[in-house]
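Q: What structure does this chain adopt?
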Amino acid sequence: MLAFFLRRLIYAVIAMWAVSVISFVIINLPAGDFVTTYIATQLNTGNIILEDEAESLREFYGLNDPVYVQYAKWITRILRGELGFSFEFNAPVRTVLSMNLLNTLLLGTGAIIFIWIVAIPIGIYSAVKQYSIGDYVATFFGYLGLAIPDFLIALVVAYLIFDLTGFLATDLYSAGYRTAPWSFAKAIDLGKHLVLPVMILGTAGTATLIRIMRANLLDELKKPYVTTARAKGVSEFQLIMKYPVRYALNPVISLTAYILPFIISGSVILSTVLDLPTIGRDFLRALTAQDVYLSGAVILFSGWLTIIGTFGSDLLLAWVDPRIRLEDD
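A:
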């Protein structure tokens, strides 16, 4: 197990380096550089940046250096926690991200927990009760969840909740709580506002995992070892839960690695529609304003989330299914 862990850790480090290179390339794709963006921003406020001053800025930030030197400086600053300066928010990127990082993590974690709690039991039921009314209902709502965009669900549900109860299900805090110090009342208020976006953000993932869990469990239930165990008189519950469900969970666990970056990418439109203070909304503003440092940091963070999720899912898979460790050895 230790050798398996070390190999996966080395792969993860190499992949994180590769993601940093790709992120750096993406940052430099737009025409010009961040000094050009800065000059345009200053012109909009009535300040004129002279050419000599612009060249001084490029020299200061090393934009006249070769690309590989620029990358080395950029990644070195990131490893020190210096993510650059956001022109759109007029603040360091680290400060901008830290303002909404907790909200993003709470929203994403809640969505993942919601997906697992809902999708796995329904997937098991659909497989065990194949072609039953419950199976057809789960299949119908699964396809419905995949077909309807999240932002449309958000708009409809938010309107219905407000129309029926008067509760405004936008933002993550009620008026006065966003900037207030943390307290039990603020945590309760946040919890009430998290329910709707968590369910909406988890809709597509839940629908996907239900189908995957159902298909894989059906495949496992048709294998000879299940037939043999049933013939020996093993109880149906123990027969299903001991091995078939564990093995059917493998692709579900693997898919969780790709749900993590969806916390950011999937919440962009949802955060805009419901006015949620998350990194996804900041990312959209950064892309619109060509705020290269902020958008680059979010892209890098999203890529690293994928790698961390993959690393974690590999370890969890090795723990759930020992065959994976043996195959890797």
